[in-house]
């Protein structure tokens, strides 16, 4: 059975949000849209997104790394949202494993969002139904498009090719090879949802930071200066 | 989680309605066995109407939780999988059976079909009451399982949730029955009051257990498993949008820890000791109004209890929105 999914390479993602904006553009003007944006130019803007890039800092200064972390619906193989939906509006397509919402059946009870541990589902505040990533189902199943365009908008937009798309059940697909060879992993594995989307871990890198590199010796404001001075002559007194 | 008043009113109102019906039916069965004085038809009919009104009020409150209430008729579709669907199926069934039970008394359908063992007169009201009792207990389980069945909300996912919903329903229902009996000048005040006290004390044990359990829960999911980066220190710096979103509104209660402690103390006082003391005072001075006040105080406490029940639950999706939490 086919299970389409995204594989996101955290080693490459630079947090440019191109996937977020292309996702919003494609889906707000397509089958799933419109995706509401309230107060876009005022205080407290809010809106529905299928895909968000969050940023985490790993480690403590100065040994830190920034991880840009794109997250959308993971199209779980055991989707808890489908299980709890009282109307059958949330469903998983049997032919390609994409989890979708039938907006005409959704009653907006939000129960599926409670059942999703990833927070991948968002209520559209104007249409008052639950929305989520469709994996651009209208693109990937459109046989009139050339084959290279039958991919989600985020994948096409990513300038760094951090996002791969394909069938994770096919051992020879690009995504399966990437998962196998580069240690692709799932989010919150303890929840037992078996998300189809995988993430490729960051490669281990080591750098040595000399403590002196962290200080500017000629810092006039002594902002970063960690040494205690006892009135002796410093570099600031002798340089111009 | 963000406490939704529609759901708070739904669960507390139908709980009291269900408990009230069970109290009425218990009274009838005991009267048949000559443990208690037999009541007139009006007592059961008006009591059933009161229970029905509470269930209807809860049902109406539940519609305010829906984004698309006009599509609510679709909700029973997946009764075989979703506890919410099951609740939607069983609620009208219970209401119908309670209505039929009340009507059977009002219209005098109390001619026995047959008599069991010389004392149990099996009449239509008894059969309907038994069916309604089963439906009411099924409704308790369905309502609680809507919450206890959410896989990742550790605070809710426990048999204690089912026990609490059932016992709080029984406790408030029997207190309401006692208040109703006091209002109609009925001798059953003390019997219902005593059962109300027993259920309140049982609920105290189970609710205290769940509070203790939740205070000592160790979260299974951490920010490390959420993003898959195995490092001791992972701090969220940006949530992907400058403004709020559905995720920041739905899964955070937005109140200070002090408010939470206050609500917790408030419901622990209003639900447990206050009604017990009021009932004891009512028994001592023979007051007819104190049982009514006791029910009112406990019900306000139950609203606070349900608010805390929601606020207390920490959803794993919050790991992705730590900069808000």
Main sheet overview of chain B: 2 strands, antiparallel
Please name the two chains that share the biggest interface, counting residues whose Cβ lies under 8 Å from a Cβ on the partner chain: A-B, 63 and 57 residues
CATH uppermost class of chain B: Mainly Alpha
Kindly report the spatial arrangement of strands forming the biggest sheet of chain B.
1-2
User: H/E order of the elements of chain B?
Assistant: HHHEEHHHHEHHHH
Mean pLDDT of chain B: 93
Keywords (chain B): Membrane, Transmembrane, Transmembrane helix
Transmembrane segments (chain B): 41-67, 88-107, 127-150, 162-183, 189-208, 265-286, 292-309
InterPro entries (chain B): DmsC
GO molecular function, one term (chain B): dimethyl sulfoxide reductase activity
Give a verbal description of the structure:
The complex is a heterodimer of chains A (240) and B (325). Chain A has 240 residues and is an alpha+beta fold. Chain A has a domain at 4-74 and 135-200: Alpha-Beta Plaits. Chain A has helices at 18-28, 80-84, 111-115, 137-140, 153-157, 174-182, 235-238; strands at 4-9, 37-38, 46-47, 51-60, 63-72, 90-92, 99-101, 122-124, 129-131, 163-167, 198-200. In chain A, the strands form five sheets. In chain A, strands 10-1-11 form a three-stranded mixed β-sheet, covered by helices on one side. In chain A, strand 2 and strand 3 form a beta hairpin. The longest helix of chain A is centred in the first third of the chain and has 11 residues, at 18-28. The mean pLDDT of chain A is 91. By secondary structure, chain B is mostly helical. In chain B, strands 1-2 form a two-stranded antiparallel sheet. In chain B, helix 4 (124-148) packs across helix 5 (159-183). Classes of the chains: A alpha+beta (240), B mainly alpha (325). Chains A and B meet through strand 3, strand 4, strand 5, helix 2 and helix 3 of A and helix 3, helix 7, strand 3 and helix 8 of B.
């Amino acid at each position: 059975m086919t299970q389409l999914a995204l594989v996101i390479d955290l080693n490459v993602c630079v947090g440019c949000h191109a996937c977020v904006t292309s996702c919003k553009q494609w889906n707000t003007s397509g089958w799933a849209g419109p995706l509401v944006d309230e107060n876009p130019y005022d205080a407290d803007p809010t809106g529905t997104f299928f895909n968000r890039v969050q940023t985490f800092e790993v480690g403590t200064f100065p040994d830190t790394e920034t991880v840009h972390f794109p997250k959308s619906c993971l199209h779980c193989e055991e989707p808890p949202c489908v299980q709890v939906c009282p109307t059958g509006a949330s469903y998983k397509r049997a032919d390609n494993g994409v989890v979708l919402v039938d907006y005409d059946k959704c009653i907006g009870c939000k129960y599926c969002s409670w059942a999703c541990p990833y927070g991948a589902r968002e209520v559209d505040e104007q249409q008052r139904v639950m929305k989520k990533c469709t994996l651009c189902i209208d693109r990937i199943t459109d046989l009139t498009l050339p084959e290279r365009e039958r991919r989600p908008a985020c994948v096409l937009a990513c300038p760094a090719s951090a996002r791969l798309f394909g069938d994770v059940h096919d051992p020879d697909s690009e995504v399966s090879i990437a998962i196998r060879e580069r240690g692709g992993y799932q989010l919150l594995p303890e929840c037992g949802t078996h998300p189809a989307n995988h993430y490729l871990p960051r490669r281990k890198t080591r750098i040595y930071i000399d403590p002196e590199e962290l200080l500017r010796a000629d810092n006039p404001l002594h902002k970063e200066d960690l040494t205690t001075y006892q009135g002796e002559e410093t570099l600031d007194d002798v340089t111009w | 989680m963000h406490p939704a008043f529609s759901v708070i009113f739904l669960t507390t109102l139908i709980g009291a309605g269900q408990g009230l019906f069970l109290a009425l039916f218990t009274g009838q069965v005991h009267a048949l066995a000559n443990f208690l004085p037999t009541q007139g038809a009006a007592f059961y009919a008006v009591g059933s109407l009161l229970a029905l009104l509470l269930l209807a009020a809860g049902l109406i409150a539940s519609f305010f939780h829906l984004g698309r209430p006009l599509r609510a008729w679709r909700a029973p579709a997946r009764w075989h999988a979703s506890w919410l669907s099951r609740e939607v199926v069983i609620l009208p069934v219970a209401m119908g059976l309670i209505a039929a039970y009340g009507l059977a008394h009002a219209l005098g359908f109390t001619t026995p079909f047959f008599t069991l063992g010389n004392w149990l007169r099996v009449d239509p009201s008894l059969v309907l009451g038994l069916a309604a009792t089963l439906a009411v207990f099924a409704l308790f389980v369905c309502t609680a399982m809507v919450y206890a069945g959410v896989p990742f909300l550790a605070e809710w996912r426990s048999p204690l949730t089912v026990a609490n919903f059932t016992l709080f329903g029984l406790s408030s229902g029997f207190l309401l029955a006692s208040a109703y009996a006091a209002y109609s000048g009925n001798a059953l005040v003390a019997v219902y009051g005593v059962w109300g006290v027993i259920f309140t004390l049982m609920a105290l044990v189970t609710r205290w257990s769940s509070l203790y359990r939740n205070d000592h829960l160790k979260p299974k999911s951490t920010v490390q498993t959420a993003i898959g980066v195995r490092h001791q220190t992972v701090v969220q710096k940006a949530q992907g949008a400058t403004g709020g979103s559905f995720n920041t509104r739905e899964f955070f209660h937005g109140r200070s820890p002090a408010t939470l402690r206050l609500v917790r103390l408030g419901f622990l006082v209003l639900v447990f000791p206050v009604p017990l003391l009021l009932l004891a005072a009512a028994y001592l001075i023979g007051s007819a109004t104190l049982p009514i006040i006791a029910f009112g105080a406990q019900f306000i406490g139950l609203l606070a209890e349900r608010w805390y029940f929601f606020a207390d639950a920490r959803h794993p999706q919050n790991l992705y929105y730590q900069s808000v939490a």
